[in-house]
Amino acid sequence: MSALFEYLVRLGDDSLILGHRLSEWCGHGPILEEDIAMTNIALDHVGQTTSLLKYAGEVEGKGRTEDDLAFLRFEREYRNVLLVEQANEDFGVTMMRQFLFDAYRKPLYEQLTKSSDVQLAAIAEKSLKETKYHLKHSAEWVIRLGDGTDESHERVQTALNNLWRYTDELFYTDQNDVELLANGVIFSSEELKKSWMEMVKTVLDRATLTIPNNGWQREGGRKGLHSEHLGYILAELQYMQRAYPGMEW
Question: Are 165 and 216 in contact (CB under 8 A)?
Answer without folding.
Answer: yes
